[in-house]
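Bump. Still looking for Siderophore-interacting protein structure tokens.
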Amino acid sequence: MRDGVRYHDLTVARVTDVTPRMRRITFTGPDLADFASVAPDQQVKLFLPPPGRSAPDVPPLPEDGDLVRWYAAYREMDPAVRPYMRTYSVRAHRTDPPRIDIDFVLHGPVGPGSRWAGDAAVGRRIAMIGPAPSHKRVPAAYDWMLLAGDESALPAIAATLEALPAGLPVQAFVEIDGPAEEQRLDTAADLSLAYVHRDGAHGDRLVRAVAEHHIRLGLPYVWLAGEAATVRRLRRHFVAERAVPKSAIAFVGYWRRGTAQDAPPTSEDLADEREAH
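Sorry for the wait, here they are.
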């Protein structure tokens, strides 16, 4: 398929609770033999079966790679049988045997992703299309790195840290609910990690922690992800207050507070998408 995008039938091989609100689901399947990682922060589209169905029914990908036509066919499906499509980061990819881990944030039955993950069990089936890198903009060279996001960005942050070279100075800020959600993050880089406990104010404490951080000398690579409005505030801070070049900032809003993931994008979302690419 175009740009390396592939369709995969997946089966749950293992379910592990990393923290009270983060569940790691390991998937297997013969289609994973051709899965090729494209970036540490790579993303995939998961297709989750609607209630009452044991597996998702997904239109086949066109041979010519026309994803626009494919998406139109997906949207035209009967809503009663159309699977939920959600975007997730790949936490880990292994080849022998083929496995991928995806971490799901559990926040009750309010969304199809959390609801499915909360009931996940070995043998359950889903479908997947991907992978694709979540960010296109990476500086050709940089002296140090800063990563910031909430728990939805934590899988990509963890995978990125594992891929960094030894000794690279890195500052990471991760907003979570509280101490029980802290994870150990392994890296060969020179990491300074700050977990920011939300205390009911989503984004406020994360933005404040980043703004109060003493910035290093040299050219940074700033990576921002998580709730869209918070990511927007962080990016504006780095551009306006820290004079970081826009070309040195990669950013993406994984979700929007109070809005379903498949709701139409706002004008700010569209502007962010144009700027990111």
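The chain has six helices and twelve strands.

Edit: fixed formatting.
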